[in-house]
Amino acid sequence: MLKKITTLLIIAAFATSLAACKAGQNTTESTASSSSSQASVQTTEKDTSQQSDSVIATANTTSNGKIDTTDLFSKRDLSQTADLTDATKYAVSDGQNINITAEGVYVLSGSASNVTVTVEAGDEDKVQLVLDGVSITNSSAPCIYVKNADKVFVTTTQSENTLSVTGTFTADGTTNTDAVIFAKDDVVLNGVGTLNISSSNNGISGKDDVKITGGTININSVSDAIEANNSVAIADGVITINTQKDGIHAENDEDDSVGYVYICGGTLNITATDDGVHATTVAQIDDGTLDITASEGIEATYVQLNGGTIKISASDDGINASSKSKSYAVTIEINGGDITVDMGQGDTDAIDSNGDIFVNGGTLNITAQSPFDYDGQANYTGGKMIVNGTETTTITNQMMGGGMRGGMGGEMPQGGMQQGGYNGMMRR
């Protein structure tokens, strides 16, 4: 009997112990499940707050313009949102510089002063800086400084971002870092948010190529708002510029065969003390909406207007072609677009070419004492020209340097819309 009771007690104790073990296992599993759920929620919250659905801009490029731009913009150039899956996050802090040395996506947020985000990565590395509600105010150094990379993307989320330099820029050794965004290599600006740039010198400066494919960008600068050595190319975006020098400027002091400006979309409002758009070689506009108030509206060696809506109010020359590059014939060529040029009083010219003028299409509406001035030849083959309220088919010449030629004479320019080219380069 005692043996039976003892056996029953042992069985009961074992059952209680087993139940306790199972209860303990259930508690551990529940805790693990709860932890996993919280981590998943945190990840979801991060993605929702910082990453929107993919947005791709459209580049209305052409293959038969002065510049063949069919492959000018890559898919990533045109992508307005970043993949934040493996992104590294930085919250800016006063006086704490951020150094990026490897390819990747980096998210910047917060507000701070005297912070420079320096990119010094490998020659083949692509770096994406995602501005997610960041504000940086510096006294003497760029807010973003690209020392080395293959390409750097500056992408805004659905947020407002402000980059500002208020004092005199300090050089980095022999490098005159004189812009809020200063890049020695290619830089692309895009996104779905707003970027405000305020500068005591230049706004954006690229020593290679600068591209803008989206976002809202507001620039106030003492010197050039956007400048590049090789090219400035704009596919989309809402860009507002107020500058005491040039709005968009492309020039390489050491090579006059480069330095073009290409615009195929976007909305640009430019107020400039000097030139609205200035290119050493070619200024080509295929599409977009431009409203320019400047001393000179558009200036280049070769100006080609193929489309878009362009409004220019100028106090010197509305559209000017002058010899800045030995590689190109001095020409103004108008093939399309809705172009309005309103000139101030005095010694001003609406369409001024130190070489030739060719009007082949589009609508050209001029209000000026001197509508045309050219030193070469002028040729009208199509489109609508309205001068001081009267429609005309005659390109008059105000200055004796042009020999008072006008009307239907002249020849088409070499390298015009009818000729082929090669990607990202100009036809001579």
Question: What structural keywords apply?
Answer:
single chain, 428 residues, mainly beta, ten-stranded parallel beta barrel, 32 strands, 44% strand, disordered N terminus
How would you describe what is shown here?
There is one protein chain. The protein is mainly beta. It has one domain (75-402). The protein is 12% helix and 44% strand. The protein has a 10-stranded parallel beta barrel. The longest helix is centred in the N-terminal third of the chain and has 49 residues, at 2-50.
Main β-sheet, spatial strand arrangement: 5-7-10-13-16-19-17-14-11-8
Helix content: 10-25%
Provide the residue-averaged pLDDT.
86
Radius of gyration: 30 Å
Per DSSP, the total helix count is 2
Query: What gross morphology would you assign?
Result: elongated
The total domain count is 1
Distance between the termini: 114 Å
- Strand count, sense and closure of the main sheet? 10 strands, parallel, barrel
- The overall strand count is 32
* β-strand amount: 35-45%
Q: What low-confidence regions span 5 or more consecutive residues with pLDDT below 50?
A: 1-50, 400-423
Structural class: mainly beta
Topology, pairings included?
Layout: H1 2-50, H2 75-78, E1 88-91, E2 98-100, E3 104-113, E4 117-120, E5 126-138, E6 144-148, E7 151-156, E8 160-165, E9 179-183, E10 186-191, E11 194-199, E12 202-206, E13 209-212, E14 216-221, E15 226-228, E16 231-234, E17 238-243, E18 248-250, E19 260-272, E20 275-279, E21 282-300, E22 302-305, E23 309-321, E24 331-334, E25 338-343, E26 349-353, E27 356-359, E28 363-367, E29 372-374, E30 378-380, E31 384-387, E32 390-392
Parallel strand pairs: 1-3, 2-4, 3-5, 4-6, 5-7, 5-8, 6-9, 7-10, 8-11, 9-12, 10-13, 11-14, 12-15, 13-16, 14-17, 15-18, 16-19, 17-19, 18-20, 19-21, 20-21, 21-22, 21-23, 22-24, 23-25, 23-26, 24-27, 25-28, 26-29, 27-30, 28-31
Antiparallel strand pairs: 31-32
